[in-house]
Amino acid sequence: MLLPLLVCAGASALLSSAESKNKQFCTWTCAIFTLQWPGAFCQSLDNTSLCKLPPEVNGWLIHGLWPQKTQTCCECWPMFASDVQEVRGTLEEKWPSLLKSRSSFVFWKDEWRKHGTCAACVEGLNSPLQYFQMCLKLRQRFDLQKALEDAGIKPSCQRLYKLAEVQEALFPLTGSKIEIQCIKDDQEREVWFQVKIQLSRNMSLGCDHFGDTNDIRSDRRRFWGHPCPAGEGLYYVPIDHQRPLRPCG
Ligand SMILES: *[C@@H]1O[C@H](CO)[C@@H](O)[C@H](O)[C@H]1NC(C)=O
Ligand SMILES: *[C@@H]1O[C@H](CO)[C@@H](O)[C@H](O)[C@H]1NC(C)=O
User: Fold this and answer.
1) 127 near 85, Cβ under 8 Å?
2) Which atom of ligand 2 sits closest to the CA of residue 204?
3) Strands laid side by side in the 190-200 sheet
4) pLDDT by residue (tens digit) across 176-213?
């Protein structure tokens, strides 16, 4: 635990005093917790031959926990496989990489470097293990599938759901400050693939100074969805391990 702090201190000592005066640390007040529906993941890619759907994947997956408006973060805190060894099995199940080209560990490491190191100035998030444990706890807390099932919303190729119906089903669990995101499949249908949940620094629901959703950082542009349009209805497609690219033909 000491080593990264020393490395950080060393790095900031190298900054000129003018530079360091402009640096503001630990400014974030809001974070976005993003869950992804693996049934639609492959269709969110430009090149659908790049995705994989591991056999154990059968529900909503973690995409990330992203503090917003972070300004300066300590990017000099490396993460190693041994840091998350004790939660590795659960991470493989709830937060696997769905890209063929990227191992799950590389995915986690990237998320830690881009987002975790920014979150880490807050108690309870201040190490790779704590950050990933928090994300797993949030995944448990936000059991979307159960809330949806309770409301009779199940994956289907036939049923077109209304956005309001989905919002109402999730409201008791997530409140109203969420973004339900869709992508368009190759038949121009709106397909639900992600939910972004706003959290305060203490992980309570919602936050006051959320700002513009355009701030949301993402790994790659192609991962970006758009808010599901209220007027059109959306498909909540099944997870199809045999046909991950075209679960609905
Ligand atoms: C998709 O990715 C595969 C594998 O990397 C590649 O061979 C193929 O040319 C790509 N297709 C397109 C349309 O970019
Ligand atoms: C969590 O933070 C929010 C926003 O700052 C605050 O309103 C709320 O009271 C805090 N909740 C707890 C349990 O500390």
Assistant:
1) no
2) 1
3) 61-67, 30-36, 190-200, 178-184, 226-227
4) 889 999 998 888 899 999 999 999 999 999 886 554 44
Neighbouring C-beta atoms of residue 242, cutoff 10 Å: 6
Residues with Cβ < 8 Å from 104, sequence gap 6 or more?
91, 92, 95, 96, 97
Mean pLDDT for the chain? 86
Written as six digits, the tokens of 42 are 């492959």
* Element at 181 (helix H, strand E): strand 178-184
Give me ligand 1 centre to Cα 236, in Å. 27
Buried b (16+ CB within 10 A) or exposed e, 93-128: bbbbbbbeeeebbebbbbbbbbbbbbbbbbeebbbb
Report the pocket of ligand 1 as residue ranges, CB < 6 Å.
Answer: 47, 49-50
Number of the ligand closest to the Cα of 202 = 2
In 112-182, where does DSSP find H-type helix? 117-119, 128-141, 144-150, 163-174
Are 87 and 136 within 8 A, CB to CB? Answer: yes
* Per-residue confidence (pLDDT) for residue 153, from 0 to 100: 98
The stretches in the chain having pLDDT less than 70 are 1-22, 48, 208-223
